[in-house]
Amino acid sequence: MLIDWFTVAAQVINFLILVWLLKRFLYKPILDAIDAREKRIAKELADADAKKAEAQQERDEFQHKNEAFEQQRAALMNKATEEAKTERLRLLDEARQAADALSAKRQETLRNDAHNLNQAISRRAQQEVFAIARKALTELAGTSLEERMGKVFIHRLRALDAPAKAGLAVALQSAQSASDPARVRSAFDLPEEQRAAIQNALNETFSAEIHVRFETAPDLVSGIELTTNGQKVAWSIADYLLSLERGVDELLKEKGKPEVKAEPKTEQSTNENRS
After folding, report:
1. Same domain for 156 and 269?
2. Beta bridge partners of 186
3. Residues 6 or more apart from 91 whose CB is under 8 A from it?
4. What is the CB neighbour count within 10 angstroms for residue 194?
5. SS3 content of the chain, % helix, strand, coil (to 5)
6. Residue-wise pLDDT tens digits, 166-178
7. What pLDDT, on the 0 to 100 scale, is given for residue 261?
């Protein structure tokens, strides 16, 4: 079989032209499209990776912030719990102290009330006893007893110690200068003989003419007293009752204060109170 080289050459040329045409108008656009698509896909993948990395970073930041928030919340809760516990203990302590103070105050009030009641009962009993004694002695007193008391008073006047005598002398002199006579008070009217005896005793004791005014005073409960310018010389049952009443009153006061020891009275202080 003979080969037609012209035809072969023409076919080769046509094939080459076809290949060039295919490469120029078909393969190259397809390859360019494929490259563009690959670049777009690579870009999208890069963007996706970037967004994924950003999302991971944001997720890590959120998780970190969430952990920090949880720690802060836990710290605040612990702090609030401790503060609430401290405040509860403080309020309980204040309430306990208030209750203790109220209980102590109530007990003190009860003790004071009981003490005041005992004092009132004691004072009332004291007043009743002395009132009964004073009434009984008043009813038993008479003129004969007053005469005897006059003699005791004169003896007491003559037996004054030097300081008492000097003080009474000054008081009498001051009263006499002011034309204020000394007063001699008794529960009953003294007879003239007793008045004269008292007057003579005064004149002799103070070596002067003493002006005296005699008065009756039923509240003396049998007794005689001389008063002048704030000074007094007396002997009466009322003075003994008053001295005894003061002693009992002081005893009751000392009984209310057991920590203070009462000083015993001396005979001299008792005599001074009776004077």
Report:
1. yes
2. 216, 224
3. none
4. 22
5. 80, 10, 15
6. 888 888 878 777 6
7. 44
The pLDDT value recorded for residue 237 is 65
Kindly state whether residues 179 and 96 are assigned to the same domain.
Answer: no
pLDDT attached to residue 196:
86
The backbone torsions φ and ψ at residue 132, rounded to the nearest 5 degrees and listed phi first, read -65, -45
Task: Tell me the β-bridge partners of 184.
Answer: 214, 226
Does 48 fall in a domain?
no
Q: What is the DSSP string of 119-151?
A: HHHHHHHHHHHHHHHHHHHHHH--HHHHHHHHH
Quick one: 89 and 205 in the same domain?
no
Q: Specify the DSSP class assigned to residue 218.
A: G
Tokens for 196? 């004269």
In a domain, 161, yes or no: yes
- The range of the structural domain enclosing residue 111 comes to 64-140
What is residue 264's predicted lDDT score, i.e. its pLDDT? 44
Residue 274, pLDDT score: 43
Rounded Cα distance between 14 and 44, Å, is 42
Q: Are 221 and 234 in contact (CB under 8 A)?
A: no
The reported pTM is 0.38
Give me the pLDDT at residue 217, please: 76
Distance, in Å, from the CA atom of 189 to the CA atom of 211, rounded to the nearest integer, reads 18
Q: What distances in angstroms separate CA 103 from CA 94, 100, 108, 111, 274, one per listed residue?
A: 14, 5, 8, 12, 48
- Phi, psi (5° rounding) for residue 224? -135, 140
- The residue among 180, 234, 179, 182 whose CA lies nearest residue 206 is 182
